[in-house]
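Discussion board: Methods & Data

I've been asked by a reviewer to show the raw model output for two of the constructs in my manuscript, not just the figures. I'm not sure how much to include, so I'm pasting the format here to get opinions. Each protein appears as its amino acid sequence followed by a line of discrete structure tokens. Is this the kind of thing reviewers expect to see in a supplement, or should I convert it first? Here is construct A:
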Amino acid sequence: MAGLTKQAIINSFVQLAAEKTVDKITVKDITDRCGVSRNTFYYHFKDVYDVLEQFLEDQTRAAITLMEEIDLDPCRHPNRRPFEQVLSNKDLFYHLYQSAGKQEVRRYLERSGETIFDHGIERLAKGKSISAEDKRLIASFFGSAFRGVLIDWMEDRLEGSIEDIFQRLDYLLGDCVMEAIQRGSIETKKKK
């Protein structure tokens, strides 16, 4: 039962975040939306940002699980499934991004993206002798590029569907991630 209540609180937060920025959401808004008491809320979460962090952790775990299930390169996305959450909740992610004036929200979003890209690069580099620093640099670069494209799309600075945009990037960039990993592996071997 406690798990269902916790999920109801998260779901209420998600609904509210689709309507307004995180800094405008109160504990009262969440408890009114899901019909629980403030004490129940505080049993599960310390504040609204704690709910946000739990939501993003859940989304990160789901993205990593999906990457494993469909053997997905995180930097090439012809498959629609990784974007299902963003595509179906553009307003939610837009409001989360608009809350980025709050450093806490920005840190949570960036940490989620870093975790996903770090995991993806680790998978792609498996069996290669690339240094940890190079893997981190590659993950950081492509994670930042990915966030930038999503932000531009959410702010309507890029035309077309996000699937079309990433399919075009996939075509334009090709195997550049694997090439970077390969170059890092060769460089690491030379240093030994």
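Construct B, same format:
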Amino acid sequence: MKRLFFRLLPSLAALAFAMALPAGAEPAAAKLVADKSQIVFVTKQMGVPVEGTFKKFDAHVAFDPKKPEGGSVALQIDTASAGFGVPMSDAELPKQPWFDATHFPQASFQSSAIKALGDGKFEMAGKLTIKGTAKYVTVPVSIAAAGGNYAVATGSFTIQRLDYKVGDGEWTDTSMVGNEVQVRFKFTLTGLGPL
């Protein structure tokens, strides 16, 4: 037993040393400035574009613009905070046919790959989950310095609401509410690192 222990000792020491080293793979986390950020969604009601927003969301961004492939973005959205600014519509959105916020209080995006396209443009692939349904999406993102320690990430992409059962039951009729939803975002970040 003693002989086995002494034979393993160098390996155990090497393992302990490796565990004590700081993990260099994960980039420093940037902080979302919520009051300078927004998520907008645009759909059509009887052919007329209408614009809504999510008022509560948060993001964990660990991303070095110089080495984007090692980064990650995780976004959580409070589904009960969705609204068009019209009291009657806003009261309906958290209910079961739409976001069903009681059972699915959060929608989320989790990146799985980030690719640099040049000139401050990136492509983020990942899993978007709404009402318990997850689909892979590709999101184009542009990042620009905004003075001081701030950077602004903007982008837009389109989803089909029925893929996520948003507007279920009688609301699956797309002549009333269109299936296509454009999502636009502007995230102001601090501590992102040089572009």
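Answer (T.O., handling editor elsewhere):
This is acceptable in a supplement if you add a one-line summary per construct. For B, something like: The first strand starts at residue 29 and ends at 32.
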